[in-house]
Amino acid sequence: MRLSSPGQPLPGTSRRAVLRGLGGAAVLGAGIPLLSACAGSSTSSETKTVTVGSNASDAVPKKAYGDVYAAFTKQSGITVDINTKDHNTFQEQINSYLQGTPDDVFQWFAGYRMQFFAAKGLATPIDDVWKTIGDNFPSAMHDLSKGQDGKYYLVPLTTSPWAVFYRKSVFQKYGYEVPTTWDAYVALCKQMKKDGLVPIAFGDKDAWPAMGSFDQINFRLNGYDFHVELMAGKASWTDAKVRRVFDTWAETLPYHQEGAVGRTWQDAAQTLVAKKAGMYMLGMFVAQQFTNKADLDDLDFFAFPEIDPAYGQDTVEAPTDGIMLSKKPKNHAGSVKLLEFLGTPQAEETYLKADPSLIAASSKADTSAYSALQKKAYEMISGAQHLTQFMDRDSRPDFTSTVMQPALQKFVRNPKDVDSLLSSIERQKKTIFASA
Amino acid sequence: MSSETTTKTPEVATVPPPGAATPKRRASQGHRRLLTRRDRLTLGLMAGVPTILHVTLVWVTALASIALAFTTWDGIGFDSITWVGLDNFKELFTNNPQFWPAVEHNVVWFVVLILIPTPLGLFLAVQLDKKVRFSRVYQTAFFLPVVVSLAVTGFVWQLVYNPDTGLINSLIGANKPGHYIDWIGDPHLNLWAILVAACWRHTGYMMILYLAGLKGVDPSLREASSLDGANEWQTFKNVIFPTLRPTNTVVLVVTIIEALRAFDLVFVFNKGAQGTELLSILITNNIIGESSRIGYGSAIAVVLLVISLAVIIPYLISTFRKERSA
Q: Which of A46, A413, B182, B285 has the fewest CB atoms within 10 Å, i.e. is most exposed?
């Protein structure tokens, strides 16, 4: 189903994904009772085992997490029992999973999506862990790991920024320069169109990529604070500020790839790979589509251009993933040890060795092994004054998935009549946010 | 089945037990003695287990979902259920931009299935019933889409319609800027594009149903009509088609069910984006997944239930009436 997790490289409906999904669906029925059985059996091995609920079902992150847990076992002698579920399935079942018999610790996202479950009492605060690992993280990561009650609930592990990606060779060939202001960006789009390129590759079939476009324009135009207010349901969608976001966006829509609502992000990325498109605004996971080493080396990015000088480029959208402690962990002491280990730079380095499409959440992790792309991403994130998570991680998932996704698809296809669209969003938002 | 039991029971009850006791005792114990403890246990299990399953899986869930339609609930803990009266329905009917299109699309789905694949399936069935050569091969070929899972069907058609690399756009050169045809995203096209896939499947289904019906037509009827000098079309119109009446009822019911439960094809195709909203997809989007608007989703489910009942109840009434008169 349409499960958006922009920080994670989600396969859309690719051939392989569907085949895998079909297999997964068959296994699913049998899987649910098995899961509880897993959790139940771990009690017998007492304090020597910690169970982990993992959503890292794709090969690369799965191996990377496996390496990290193996390193922990080696160091502490505590076995880690990993219970991996399909990424989408994990997300869809998270409610019932956390209410049932969850694993001791589970992998999840920073931001509102973590705070929601923390507020519901489905996670245990880990302030004691942060006493040990706090120094390893920049202040933005501290904020991202706290619940609404001010307690820590998450140990962040990896992150990656959203930016405008392009191929160096294409920019060289046509003599383009990286735009830093909105006007330069629009001018570049015009030039690219003249040169026969698709200026901005775009695919919104999965309905979440457009939320990334909205976010970028919104915090460049209205600033980080407004982003937070809007996502929290406090600011109104009929506010003139929101209207300006859509107007600004509409200015560049003619330069976006045609027929975006029918295209997956993977297909859109392929036009960038094939040098048919000039730019693509997406998360760093776009690099996964660059399977050829030479192509990957040619990939570069720049921060989304400045729109209002008052805010410049001070905000970076950097979805962060981490680990949380479930409500009643069977092995509390062991889990704390594992979380402390995961908060060390060494754990993050182990992870990134196996999955170089992300960067470490800790500012102490060794960056010498980073690729040029990773280094640039690291600088971008550490230089940011504010980090956002992504619309569907910063706001209520019920609001973003049932209201915003269809609304933005509608706008992308037909950018007229924004006012009625916005008042419809606002009306629906009020009902959703009114229900506790 | 009911007639069978009613005819049997008195028979069984009147069999005089061997070694007859006093008539008084016989009257009170007649049933019990015939059923041994084991019989009673078996009967209890055979009737009890399905009853329990039916009640819990059908009635309890249906009633619970009706009750939940008047609440809001995020699915976490029972204490977070709050009663909101008709708010969900008010919201649905006035504020949800996807609701009315969804109802409309479900209706369109039914109308199209009845108008195109059903006559086509009947046509194919009539042709195949004529003992053409390779009849089995054709039957298999036309029926194959029905056997294939709808998710797979949706996936395959999605590849055909893919705007960039799909078969259609590649053939007609509509994947270049300026000539672009977005079969999956464009709300004026996508419903029809999916309906082509749905019809492709439904034709095979209808063909098999009608073929079975045609096999049941008494050959002497055909003979009689040909003796009367009727041509092929007259025979079909005046003799064969009227005898297919029971099949037509089944076809109608099956098609209504197909239209109301349409889900998998669209979900795989484009997840019910604008132009292809369906009630079933709205329910799923609201209930399953992290969004967990269980009360609101249940309200949509209740609407779907009411629509289904509005269709099914007249059908049941007419069936029972016929049964009684027969």
A: A46
Residue of chain A whose Cα is closest to the Cα of B150: A22
Residue B321 has pLDDT above 90, yes or no: no
CB contact under 8 A, A435 and B95: no
CATH number of the domain where residue B237 is located: 1.10.3720.10
* Rounded-to-integer distance, Cα A324 and Cα A124, Å: 8
Q: What is the mean pLDDT of residues B29-38?
A: 71
Instruction: Test A99 with B77 for CB contact under 8 angstroms.
Output: yes
In sequence order, the 6+-apart residues with CB closer than 8 A to the CB of A50 are: A78, A79, A80, A81, A104, A105, A331, A334, A335, A337, A338
Tally the domains of chain B: 2
Percent of chain A with pLDDT over 90: 64
Residue B317: predicted pLDDT: 87
Tokens 């999956």 correspond to what residue? B184
pLDDT tens sequence across B192-229? 999 999 999 999 999 999 999 999 888 898 889 888 88
- Burial of residue A132 (CB within 10 Å: 0-12, 13-18, 19+) is middle
Query: What's the pLDDT score for residue A278?
Result: 95
The reply to whether residue A95 touches residue B182, judged by beta carbons under 8 angstroms, is no
- Contact (CB, 8 A) for A263 and A203: yes
B271 contacts in A (CB within 8 Å)?
Answer: 1-2, 205-207
- Element spanning A93, H or E: none
Residues 6 or more apart in contact with residue A163 via CB below 8 angstroms: A281, A284, A301, A302, A303, A304, A377, A380
Percentage with pLDDT > 70 across chain B: 90
Determine the Cα–Cα distance for residues A281 and B209; give it in Å rounded to an integer. 52
Which residues make beta-bridge pairs with A162? Answer: A283
Among the partner-chain residues A205, A402, A407, the one whose CB lies closest to the CB of B291 is: A402
The pLDDT value recorded for residue A236 is 95
Dist. CA B54–CA B64, nearest whole Å? 14
Reply yes or no on whether the pLDDT at A99 is more than 60: yes
Which A residues in the span 51-80 are in contact with B, Cβ-Cβ below 8 Å? none
**Contact call for A431 and B292, based on CB within 8 A:** no
Residue of chain A minimizing CA distance to B156: A15
Higher pLDDT, A32 or A372: A372
The two structure tokens encoding residue A29: 């029925």
Query: Percentage helix, strand, coil, to 5, in chain B?
Result: 75, 0, 25
pLDDT digits (tens, 9 = 90+) for A285-332: 898 889 888 999 999 999 999 999 999 999 999 999 999 999 999 999
Find residues 60-89 of chain B whose CB sits inside 8 Å of chain A. 72, 74-77, 80, 82, 84, 87
CA atoms within 13 A on the CB side of A58: 16
Chain B residues in contact with A410 by the CB 8 A cut-off are 274
Residue B18: give the domain boundaries. Answer: 1-34
**Which residues of chain A are within 8 Å of residue B96 when distances are taken between CB atoms?**
428
- Taking the Cβ of residue B263 and every Cβ of chain A, the question of whether any pair is shorter than 8 Å is answered with no
For testing contact with chain B, the best of A1, A8, A97, A114 (most B CBs within 10 A):
A1
Same domain, B133 and B233: yes
Do B109 and B26 share a domain, yes or no?
A: no
pTM: 0.81
- pLDDT value for A46: 53
Q: Taking CB atoms and an 8 Å cutoff, what residues of chain B touch A94? A: 290
A198 part of contact set with chain B, CB < 8 Å:
yes
Under 8 Å between Cβ of A307 and A217 = yes
Please give the Cα distance from A42 to A137 (Å, whole number).
32
Same domain membership, residue B270 and residue B160: yes
- Which of B251, B241, B277, B229 lies closest to B108 in space, CA to CA? B277
Domains and their CATH numbers in chain A: 15-160+320-388 (3.40.190.10), 162-317+396-434 (3.40.190.10)
